[in-house]
UniProtKB/TrEMBL annotation:
The keyword Electron transport belongs to this UniProt entry's keyword annotation: yes
Protein name: Electron transfer flavoprotein subunit alpha/FixB family protein
One Gene Ontology molecular-function label: flavin adenine dinucleotide binding
Record-level GO BP terms: fatty acid beta-oxidation using acyl-CoA dehydrogenase
Co-factor requirement: FAD
Domain Electron transfer flavoprotein alpha/beta-subunit N-terminal: 5-193
Recorded family membership: Belongs to the ETF alpha-subunit/FixB family.
Length: 325
């Protein structure tokens, strides 16, 4: 039987998120060359459907209903359930985003499926073995490799920024309408408050410049903002900086905040508490700027600068600005 893998192609403001393409690449790996990759697109336009079809989705199931204009778990779960029930795929992959984390367990329960969350690597089945999913444990201090028990479908969430996104494919997939019934709503969205307007999505940013208590005030974040802008990155923060009111909690990185895995993480005035490391230690390259040479952050940093961030950060910004074309 042909192996089918279904992907939830998550959008924000009608545009596909990068994690949708990362999940698509993981789906192709699991499906193999002979298998089928299906994507569910909800409430987005034809350009997004075509983009999925051009990057490895064999069939894009586009759900279009006014109820999808604003995300509500009941409606989005209903659209995904409709696709799942008609296709009966081996697996459903979602991004490990706020929406993905909300939808995945409820869909897994509804389908009687196994669920592995926050996956950072996927190894396809080979030599008669089963596919293996890697996920972090103990705030990133260890990794476990899991497989599903035979005979059940799989629901998997993929941590953003950990796998290469799907690249353009030679074969163009097809797009078809997905019919589903809008269920009764138990929640209603009254308003959407955007706290990080204009900023690149922190969870998907390639470069993050993060500030801690050492930044000392809301105004102290300004040089970090400038450095982030010079690098095309996003600003993040430690919980201490958020607690002190220097910035919004939407920027908090760590155990009780967001998990980020950028190519470059620049920690400014952050000591490196274990709860902060839980949200950023998977970053490809870590640079720490701290005036305390014994700060624990230097233990995980690839490059350390012992110094006052208010001197070092503007110097870095002016150097990076010079590099701009
Ligand atoms: P501090 O530990 O106070 O460090 C400030 C650093 O700035 C120091 O190292 C200092 O040397 C340096 N510094 C000061 N001035 C300058 C300067 N001018 N130039 C350069 N360096 C300077 N924390 C998180 O971040 N995220 C979480 O999600 C999180 N979740 C938590 C969950 C629980 C259950 C608990 C108990 C704690 C959690 N914490 C979290 C808090 C965490 O334990 C630390 O208290 C917090 O990370 C410390 O933040 P910080 O490094 O900014 O502040």
């Amino acid at each position: 039987m042909t192996k089918k893998i279904l992907v939830y192609a998550e959008c924000r403001d009608g545009r596909l998120r990068r994690v949708a393409f990362e999940a698509l690449a993981a789906a192709r790996l699991l499906a193999g060359e002979d298998g089928e990759v299906h994507a569910v697109l909800a409430g987005a336009g034809p350009a997004e459907a075509e983009a999925l079809a051009a990057r490895g989705a064999d069939v894009v199931h586009a759900a279009d209903d006014p109820a999808l204009a604003v995300y509500t778990p009941e409606v989005y779960a209903a659209a995904l359930s409709a696709a799942f029930c008609s296709l009966k795929p081996q697996a459903l992959l979602l991004g490990h985003t706020a929406a993905g984390r909300e939808l995945a367990p409820r869909l897994a329960a509804a389908f009687g499926a196994g669920h592995i969350a926050d996956v950072t690597a996927v190894q396809a089945a080979h030599d008669g073995g089963e596919a293996v999913f890697t996920r972090p444990l103990y705030a990133g201090k260890a990794y476990e490799r899991r497989r599903f028990a035979p005979g059940v479908p799989w629901v998997v969430t993929i941590r953003p920024n950990n796998m290469p996104p799907a690249s353009p494919s030679e074969k163009q997939g097809t797009v078809q309408a997905l019919a589903f019934e809008v269920p009764p709503l138990y929640t209603s969205v009254r308003s959407i408050v955007r706290r990080t307007s204009g900023q690149i999505d922190l969870a998907e940013a390639d470069i993050v410049v993060s500030g801690g208590r050492g930044v000392r005030s809301a105004a102290g974040f300004e040089p970090l903002q400038q450095l982030a802008e010079a690098l095309g990155g996003a600003v993040g923060a430690s919980r201490a900086a958020c607690d002190a009111g220097y910035c919004d909690y939407a920027l908090q990185i760590g155990q009780t905040g967001k998990t980020v895995t950028p190519q470059l993480y620049i920690a400014c005035g952050i000591s490196g508490a274990i709860q902060h490391l839980a949200g950023m230690s998977g970053s490809r390259t870590i640079v720490a700027i701290n005036k305390d040479p014994d700060a624990p952050i230097f233990g995980v940093a690839d490059y350390g600068i012992v110094g006052d961030l208010f001197e070092v950060v503007p110097l870095l910004t002016s150097e990076f600005r010079k590099q701009r074309p």
